[in-house]
Specification:
The protein is mainly alpha-helical. The protein has 2 helices and 3 strands. The longest helix has 73 residues, at 2-74.
């Protein structure tokens, strides 16, 4: 009888240990699922904040570009423009205007101006600096091209 009781006791202890182990496993799976959900929610919140910053930056840059483009178009009519607006021709890229001071009044043209318009704190681009340097160094020439 002791053997049978011992077997039942060991068997019931194993069942108890199995149930406790299964319970522990279920708690662990639930904890992992909750942590995963919390991490995913935190990531979404962080992504929303980052997305908002990126959108605000894009909007700010877009406004700056549009403001610059508008400034380029009206610049010849603003005070202190370096020549008569009628003497200036809009090019756009890589330089904003080319001007022939005196041409509109029928006067002799003594110089040709390359004019770059900037607004706010805008700086010359690398290409614009290269053009400025070429002009300042005298690396400018006139070419006549005849269509064949």
């Amino acid at each position: 009888m002791t053997e049978l009781s011992l077997e039942k006791l060991i068997s019931s202890q194993l069942v108890t240990i199995g149930i406790i182990g299964l319970g522990f496993f279920l708690v662990l799976v639930i904890a992992i699922a909750v942590a995963f959900k919390a991490g995913k929610s935190a990531a979404k919140i962080a992504l929303r904040g980052e997305l908002k910053k990126v959108r605000e930056d894009a909007l700010k840059r877009s406004r700056a570009v549009l403001g610059g483009q508008a400034g380029e178009q009206v610049a010849p009519f603003l005070p202190h423009f370096p020549c008569n607006p009628a003497d200036a021709r809009f090019v756009g890229k890589p330089i904003d205007f080319i001007a022939f001071p005196g041409a509109a009044e029928g006067e002799p043209i003594d110089e040709v101006l390359l004019i770059e318009v900037k607004t706010g704190d805008a700086q010359l681009s690398q290409r614009e600096r290269q053009i400025r340097d070429a002009v300042e160094d005298g690396r400018v020439r006139y070419v006549e091209y005849r269509v064949p």
